[in-house]
Design goal:
By secondary structure, the protein is of the alpha/beta class. The chain is built from 5 helices and 8 strands. Strand 4, helix 3 and strand 5 form a beta-alpha-beta unit.
C-alpha cells in the first residue's frame, strides 16, 4: 500500500510554485523512502510512497504523477521492469532512478528505458533536490512548448488541415499505401 502524505511543514527548503507537482517515491528501504518523501514534502511537493515495484505500478495506474523516483533493486517488480511497464503502457512520465547499483546491462540492451536522471546512492539532499527540480523543469518546459503549439494551431478556432492537391492528400507519402492495397 502507498503511504499518502500531502502535509506541508515549515522547512529550510524552498517551496515550489502552485499547484504542487505530484511525485511517487519507490524504495524498499524504509529509511531512504521516508527521508526522500520528507525532503520532497518539505520542499512543497505532493508525495506518495511505495515500498516495492508492484505497489508502485498499482499507484501509477490509479493516480496521476509528474515524476517517478525509483530504486532499481526492489521486491516483486524491479526498477527497470517498472520502466519497461511504463513504456509499454505508453505512460509519459519522467523518471529518476536513485539506486546503489545501475542496471547497465538493461540500459545497454534497452536504451529507451534510460531514466531522465540516475542518482547513485549515497547522494546528498542537495543533489537529490537538484535532480528533481531539473527533471520537473524540463518536463514543464516541454509541456509549455506543446501547449504553445496547440494554441498556435488552434487560434481562431481553425484546425490545421493538410494541403490537398485534387482529391489526393499529400500528407500521406506514396510508400504508405492504404491497408487494403498492401500485399501480404
Amino acid at each position: 500500500m502507498t503511504d499518502k502524505d500531502t502535509s506541508q511543514s515549515d522547512a529550510p527548503f524552498q517551496r515550489e510554485s502552485n499547484p504542487p507537482h505530484h511525485i511517487l517515491v519507490v524504495d524498499d528501504e524504509p529509511d531512504i523512502r521516508q527521508l526522500n518523501t520528507e525532503v520532497l514534502i518539505d520542499s512543497g511537493y505532493q508525495v506518495d510512497a511505495a515500498e516495492d515495484g508492484a505497489v508502485a505500478w498499482q499507484a501509477l495506474n490509479t493516480n496521476s504523477y509528474d515524476l517517478l523516483i525509483t530504486d532499481h533493486h526492489l521486491p516483486k517488480v524491479s526498477g527497470i521492469e517498472l520502466l519497461r511497464k511504463l513504456r509499454a503502457a505508453r505512460m509519459v512520465l519522467p523518471v529518476i532512478m536513485a539506486t546503489g547499483h545501475l542496471p547497465k546491462e538493461g540500459f545497454t540492451r534497452y536504451p529507451w528505458l534510460r531514466p531522465a536522471v540516475t542518482l547513485l546512492k549515497p547522494y546528498i539532499v542537495e543533489e537529490f533536490l537538484g535532480a528533481v527540480k531539473k527533471v520537473l523543469r524540463a518536463a514543464d518546459n516541454a509541456a509549455d512548448r506543446a501547449q504553445l503549439f496547440r494554441y498556435r494551431d488552434m487560434k481562431d478556432d481553425k484546425i490545421p488541415q493538410p494541403e490537398k492537391i485534387g482529391r489526393r492528400n499529400t500528407a500521406i507519402p506514396d510508400e504508405f499505401p492504404p491497408p487494403h492495397s498492401r500485399g501480404g
